Batch of 4 targets.
Target 1
Amino acid sequence: MFTVEPIACLRDNYAYWLTCGRTGVTAVVDPSEVDPVLASAKGREPALVLCTHHHLDHVGGVPGLTAKFPRMKVIASSYDNGRIDGQTDSVSDGDRFSVGDVTVEVMLVPGHTLGAIAFVARAGERTAVFTGDTMFLAGCGRLFEGTPADMHRSLQRIVSLPADTQIYCGHEYTADNLRFAAMLEPSNEAIARAVARTSDLRARGLPTVPHSVAEEREINPFVRPQSADLRKNLGLGLGSSDVDVIGAAREAKNSFR
Ligand code: ZN
Ligand code: FE
């Protein structure tokens, strides 16, 4: 048993508290800044910080938290060694560690950056994944360092997790992503339902995280390269590869307003 609490940071970032329900051991994922983390701590002291990638809007709070909690471990991709101020531990694909009773497995998911990792948290029947800027709800991150092929492989790994896996991503971009998804698949009813639920949540100031893997498989254009509508609206036919579709969708999203 574990809990995940989003911490709203900066303009639209999410850091998270990942807390073991039995032991109370807790980790902070992607602390963009210090103050919102401390303000939501309720007496918790993070034993670990988990960094999905080296961008400052995900690790900017690390030095400040380390100053406050000197015994805290800061876990990040071996690829990002030297790119993250305060990193103490380097991890690679398949590595595991624990947060109390929660087992966390590292999944290398290049695309947004080459060292990007997702953290898969498991305890009992429950699975959650922290995807940083690789996968957003109904979208994916920009390709700063990787290729469409990298991103395709990474997203497919994430959506190969169990269908009820909860996805916690690095930014609140869901409403914008769904506008783009609806343009590409106008008759997709799961997208229409997600649009309605998202605007309701946002109107009440609530986060849209998490979605399940099952839901993302229905609505996220970047994990649906086989969709005929999607291909048609990107100007691609059935002869194009899945990677071509992901690349074209990412290009179209870059200029979508
Ligand atoms: Zn980033
Ligand atoms: Fe980011």
Target 2
Amino acid sequence: MELRTHIRDVPDFPKKGIVFKDITPMLGNPAALAHVVQAMAAKFQGQGITKVVGIESRGFIFAPPIAIALGAGFVPIRKPGKLPWKSRRQEYGLEYGTDTIEIHDDAVTARDRVLMVDDVLATGGTMEAACKLVRLLGAEVVACAFVIDLAFLGGAKRLDVPIFSVLEYT
Ligand code: AMP
């Protein structure tokens, strides 16, 4: 499957200097979408995953079908102020300024083995903060899975668990 042909580079989006990986052509192609979800789920079959955490917003596209394939639950990590129940928050640094993500207090427990999912690994700041939140609640982070690893940005170095990506750009 020539997946790369279904990923579109959009220069200077959302701001100058960033080459945005637009996955919407891949999402719209039935064979490509099925291939990506199946590849991500297959890698983690039989590892006792109980929860699949998706990071808002594009992590929400992939985490639920992977959770269903693994017989696990889905947990959303959201942008601030979106979750209705008691939540924990984690701030993390961006190139300019900071960002914050949140998780419900009761979303995972010490009995959970968690797979973390997002669409793109860039600098790794978002996923590093997401892993902190899950561990704060006592759960075990088993691995992180991405559709795309922008390996030239070195995000994997910030993550202390195994990472899996369907596509790597070097
Ligand atoms: P980072 O925290 O730098 O690893 O950024 C990860 C988050 O930003 C992911 O949720 C991605 O959806 C998004 N992101 C960062 N860089 C890109 C890019 N070049 N193309 C598409 N999404 C990106």
Target 3
Amino acid sequence: MSSHGDPIPMTSSACGPLSGVAEVPGDKSISHRSLILGAMAVGETTITGLLEGQDVLDTGKAMQAFGAEVINHGGGSWSVHGVGVGGFAEPDQVIDCGNSGTGVRLIMGAMATSPISVTFTGDASLNGRPMARVTDPLALFGCQAVGRAGGRLPMTLVGAADPVPVRYTVPVPSAQVKSAVLLAGLNAPGETVVIEEEATRDHTERMLAGFGAEISTEVTDEGRVITLKGQPELKPQHIDVPRDPSSAAFPVCAALIVPGSDVLVPNIGLNPTRAGLFTTLREMGADLVYENEREEGGEPVADLRARFSPDLKGIEVPAERAASMIDEYPVLSVVASFASGETHMPGVKELRVKESDRIDAMAVGLRAAGVTVEDGPDWWTVTGLGHGHVTGGVTCASHLDHRIAMSFLVMGMATQKPMSVDDGGPIATSFPIFEALMGGLGADIQRGG
Ligand code: S3P
């Protein structure tokens, strides 16, 4: 089932070379943060290039429920009139974050140190995901949470009336948890310190600094120690959202496996905490070139040129790279199916608690399509068959997970028989123009099973 409405089965069939320019949408992580930080600033933040996927739209609606004015000016241009740190009003409705773990976890952090009660819910996928990883550290500030068994949504949080600052070591590599604690720290007096042993995406830290918060990061023996001074006045910003490397992954990977392809994916943010997939693909022998490398808004950016790569090899993906490509393992497993030899992916326990259990969701579909996959609690190995040898011809469950649906549709572009997904509806959460964009490059994606 799609998150809203009837399931939308989709089928992808082998196609001729993919070619042209793939203008992928804005970065999902930065889009959520733009709306939330805009709502916590005093005055008007303007945003261009916002991802208008359902996840981000749900966060925008939530910010309105907290009292911020969120206006869509059309064409990806938005403004947020913020209420200031500590200025959130108590919403008079349940906050429905749809499919978005990032949305709900960051918003929980942002409200946790205000004296308001908020009830959160989501779709069947989100309501099955663990929230204690966020509500445990928020309790240290004085925020109380009551949810369903196992710390699941729906859940009500009562924000701390007299918050205290916190020093917290994040026990799992999660930018969502780190960000929730930092956003809660905004309305606590004194210094909140978050320590992460493994570096995860650092957009919250960069953007908080941009909004005028006092925040610093020190790399020590403990890991990355991030210190935030509480109760700043955040100054409104103009944010030009860079394009999403996690969405770029789909046309890039499709070009690598479809014979004769040559695709340009311009203006992709290559923040090192996000770019692990591209490093991995190059190690596998992908013809993937960074063109026009430059800096924009303090972030490295390049145009990616991906061409058909007939001699891909399986590799060992270093566990320490996992956080920088955590959302890209599903589509990497597709590329690995067309490589020769084993691609071993260790250190990926977090994949089991995403929008779906992504190892399981991919392993079931890949095996049915003729690929050998082995897996354990925190690792998986895909044994590739080489170009032209992957059978396909199966219908896969997308489990309300946009990246699972898009990965199997990319796979069908190069398998002997078409690949179908039971529901492509969730694609709209992060990449609403996926079908049109891939079709424009020459892909054959049809509605129907
Ligand atoms: C995100 C962090 C990651 C990622 C998600 C977006 C973010 O989740 O999977 O799609 O914007 O902070 P975790 O922090 O749970 O690893």
Target 4
Amino acid sequence: MYRIAPSILSADFARLGEEVRAVIDAGADWIHFDVMDNHYVPNLTFGPMVCRALKPHVGDTPIDVHLMVEPVDEMITAFADAGADIITFHPEASRHVDRSLSLIRERGIKAGLVLNPATPVYLLENVLDKIDVILLMSVNPGFGGQKFIPSVLNKVRQCKFLCDMYAEESGRRIMIEVDGGVNAENIGDIAVLGADTFVAGSAVFGQKDYAAAIAALRAQLPQE
Ligand code: DX5
Ligand code: ZN
């Protein structure tokens, strides 16, 4: 029921294939892939070519592409071609959110919206049927290693309420993923409120032993 998604933003970029294999061997459920364009966010990372290069290294483990780019539609197509399994984007970065979500789903890829700490949950209400995952930012996007913003806990609760209502009427469960400053001290509290998927950059790649780091995060989750 719970997923740990290590963010390769905190990995050694000179050895990415090796890093990805190591973290999957250590128990990662998804590989979180942070795409930054120095326009939507003040940082620059990697694009579809790197995703394509990593694909043979991940086996069956889903690649969770978090687009911090503006505009988004062209990158959706490029990442769909590059082997993304999940694509999420920020609604502020797309002029036509419904169309961008449809673009993702037409390719048979799981789609999601990312809410910044100040972005309200109600933005999701009219597109729930096109969403597989809600990604709640618990830091301002752009950098790894920042401190968890506690007001996001209330948004986790709000999203859980919304997703429960939606599941009742549709029979479909939307995942709730939290990204930024997640560690072994706070993951338990976040999970209790309803999140099921946890991005962890520095809490995994900042440690020597990835298996121990992932186990330490999992140990704090409510019993499945
Ligand atoms: C921030 C990224 C996060 C980041 C998380 O813009 O979206 O995925 O890498 O890193 P930590 O876990 O170190 O906050
Ligand atoms: Zn991310």
